[in-house]
Structures are given as structure tokens and as C-alpha cells.
Amino acid sequence: ANIAAALSKNVKGYELVNIGGGKNYSVLDLAEMVGGPQIFIEPRPEAKHSLADISKAKQLLDWEPQVALPDGIAELKKSFL
Fold this sequence. Notes:
There is one protein chain. The protein is mostly helical and about 80 residues long. Helices cover about 40% and strands about 0% of the residues. It contains four helices and no strands.
């Protein structure tokens, strides 16, 4: 998606195109997907929820996610084991 956006004639100048998977995941969700020990620190002032609006990516790049994040991380982990 990032390469398609960089090469696209549909994306003008510094136009922003969000790329995402269409589902929210917390840092804890990500840590559990990756695995290993977890260290908890004091909470920081950050957004509790965020979700990329990928409508521009669909419109301008004819792109949408093909692999769900948990599946992609599971496949990536296989290459390191």
C-alpha cells in the first residue's frame, strides 16, 4: 500500500493516505500477538482508541488489507523461529 501510494498518479503532492487494517488493537493486544515477557509501565497520556480511515486508500489506490494483523504477525513469527 505504501509503495502504491508513493507511485500513484492519483495521490497529489503531500496528500495523506491512511493505511490500516480496519480494526483497533491495543498495545497489550500487540504484545500478546508477538509474545515474550511483558513489562508494564505507568500509563502515558495517549489516545485510547484510534482507527485509520482507509477510504482514500480504497478510492485512490484500489487497495484494502488482504491479511489480518494477527495472521500477519503469526506468519512473521514463523520466519524467526
